[in-house]
Design a protein that fits this description.
- By secondary structure, the protein is an alpha/beta fold.
- The protein has one domain: Alpha-Beta Barrel (TIM Barrel), CATH 3.20.20.
- The chain is about 40% helix and about 10% strand.
- The strands form 2 sheets. Strands 3-4-5-6-7-8-9-10 form an 8-stranded parallel β-barrel, surrounded by 4 helices. It has a two-stranded antiparallel sheet with strand order 1-2.
- The longest helix is centred in the middle third of the chain and has 17 residues.
- The protein is globular and about 60 Å long.
Length: about 400
């Protein structure tokens, strides 16, 4: 018997919705060998029973959080740890991030083939236009050293503190040159666009937020990559603009990867064409992991048609998860994890479960079902009804 639930539409009107049968994805029995590098930026699971104030304190359910990483590894993904998907800078501070990185790296050592890259930034340093560049460099060095001391690989995150004080492209060139000269192993550089974090508007250029110039920013970024290619594994670009990613990809030094961070156009960018392809470091992989794993396995077998067919219904889902204001996409990621039983509650660090409306979440429910990603429809319906009841819909 098909499961059904009454859901609000865009105008708030209620209408019955009947779920489809969940899709059975062809998942690997052992760690797959793909022809794309694929890192999933993983979310954290809050501890709803902690006696803390969620807007002030960080309380993490460590076992549920690590279990989700084991799940991602089992499907073939590497884990991008302590990134914005883990609410870095939106509830997760540097102290908690380092604890998360330490625990994930320890778990990875006990998991054959597990890959982890961890975010290093400057988020323990408050943004201040008067901050000298030397202090920005010192903040980056502190986090990089802490991660490397644990045996971790680094994703060099964009810095709100640098965006606040940089006056010109040369300031970015100086900071990245100094930081990259100190790292032990090649890093992934992350260019996170202002749609994900408004505090990063004008990144690479030093211009005011009202004067965002992605063309100039791309030139500066390309200069940094060329000057320090031996210290760079790749760059993750998150501008939600396929044409800009493809242009920068064409300018990369030999051996430097393009990791797509485009949660709107990821399927076409990963699939690629005669001009090339992108590897992946994506938050949406957290939410669509079974589909993405099956699609990447099909692509590795040379079956592009199946790759496209599996991912096609996940694209509208992802576009809804990352709809403006894009920075609230984490709420959708955690919502899907809750619907699928990967955590027992819909509670987030920082109280971010309230960042999206019931109407938004209802459409997300429909789109997740359309992509075949509600693994147990009856459980999903029961949980959706609980959420509806909390909003006065019975």
């Amino acid at each position: 018997m098909s499961a059904s639930v009454t859901l609000p539409g865009a105008n708030g009107a209620l209408a019955p919705y009947t779920l489809r049968m969940p899709h059975t994805f062809d998942l690997p029995a052992e760690r797959p060998q793909w022809n794309r590098v694929a890192l999933a930026a993983a979310h954290v699971v809050a501890d709803p029973l902690a006696g803390t104030d969620p807007w002030v304190d960080v309380a993490i359910d460590w076992e549920a959080t690590l279990a989700y990483r084991r799940y991602l590894w089992s499907l073939g993904f590497g884990v991008a740890e302590a990134m914005d998907t883990a609410q870095r800078g939106m509830g997760l501070d540097w102290s908690s991030s380092l604890a998360l990185i330490r625990r994930t790296l320890a778990e990875a050592r006990a998991t054959p083939g597990a890959v982890v890259f961890s975010g290093a930034g400057t988020d323990h340093l408050p943004p201040d236009p008067a901050t000298p560049l030397a202090r920005i460099i010192g903040a980056y060095d502190e986090q990089c050293a802490a991660i490397e001391a644990l045996g971790g690989r680094i994703i060099l995150m964009a810095s709100r503190a640098l965006a606040a004080c940089a006056r010109s492209p040369d300031d970015y060139r100086e900071v990245y040159a100094r930081v990259l000269s100190q790292v032990r192993e090649p890093v992934v550089i992350h260019w996170l666009g202002e749609m994900f974090d408004p505090a990063l508007a004008g990144y690479w250029t030093g211009r005011a937020a009202r004067d965002v110039d992605h063309r100039l920013a791309m030139d500066v970024c390309a200069d940094v990559l060329a000057a320090h290619a031996s210290k760079i594994d790749g760059i993750k670009i998150s501008l939600l603009d396929a044409s800009k990613e493809i242009e920068l990809r064409s300018r990369l030094p030999h051996g430097v990867r393009m990791y797509t961070g485009d949660d709107f156009n990821f399927a076409a960018l990963i699939g690629g064409d005669a001009a090339g392809h992108s590897d992946a470091l994506l938050g949406i992989f957290d939410a669509i992991a079974p589909a993405a794993s099956a699609a990447l396995s099909a692509l590795a077998r040379g079956d592009r048609a199946k790759f496209d067919a599996i991912l096609a219904p996940t694209v509208p889902l992802s576009r809804h998860v990352f709809a403006s204001p894009t920075r609230f996409y984490k709420t959708g990621v955690v919502f899907i994890a809750w619907l699928n039983g990967h955590q027992s509650h819909f509670t987030m660090v920082g109280g971010q479960q309230s960042a999206r409306s019931l109407v938004h979440l209802a459409e997300l429910f429909r789109l997740t079902d359309a992509a075949g990603l509600l693994q147990d429809p009856e459980r999903a319906v029961a949980r959706m009804r609980t959420l509806l009841a909390l909003h006065g819909v019975t």
